[in-house]
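Subject: for your reference before the review

Hello V.,

The reviewers asked for a structural picture of the protein, and I figured it would be easier to keep everything in one thread rather than splitting it across files. Below is the amino acid sequence we used in the manuscript, unchanged from the supplementary table.
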Amino acid sequence: MAEDTDEVAGGDDTTGDGVLARDFLLRVGERIRATRIDRGLTVQHLADLSGVSRRLLTQIEHGQANPSLVAVTRIARSLGTEFTELIGDAGPAEGAVERVPPEKYSLVWTSPAGSSAHLLVSTTGVRTADLWSWTLSPGDAYRGLPDPPGSFELFHVTHGHLSVLADGVEVTMAPGESGRLRSDRPYSYHNHGAEPVVFLRTVALASGARAPRPREHDR
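And here is what came back from the structure prediction:
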């Protein structure tokens, strides 16, 4: 990523060599701006709350930056919400079962090697779980930063061999195998093979991971 688009206080915020999808960035940027204004926050105040630079936040709101997903998540949580809610439909479904057609899936992450990550569906209200469909091209990787303490990721491999690295230990899963990752630490997904790896990934955030909505006297 370009140096200008990764300005986060406190350290590195990259997630591999991939980028967030353009349509996703435009949609989430518009909704971050609308939510910030609705909360009565200035750009500077939200930048201070999230640890993201004012310059980068302004660029994100106008769809002119390529931040990491971690930076977007920090901003959303500082607004008392989640990025999945910012890009999702307003309000819960009326019935007990909600069907989500493929055209509602969100392409969130891509890489120059051709890898991709689609957000299929997530819980409404407080974000507790997301279901993703991932494809990692041969030789490619995705490096994530820690989720809140007590969080997990669950995955199921449908094609290729997926290698997961955490705490200095790498474990490889074959097609048909599943795994569980303690994602409250640095981790990475790798494809060391000669064919694409396709897997389903569920992000299960720990209870209490969501930040409270900014209060009037905090503004």
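For the response letter, the relevant points are probably these. Residues 22-39 form the longest helix (18 residues). DSSP finds five helices and eleven strands in the chain.

Happy to draft the paragraph if you're swamped.

O.
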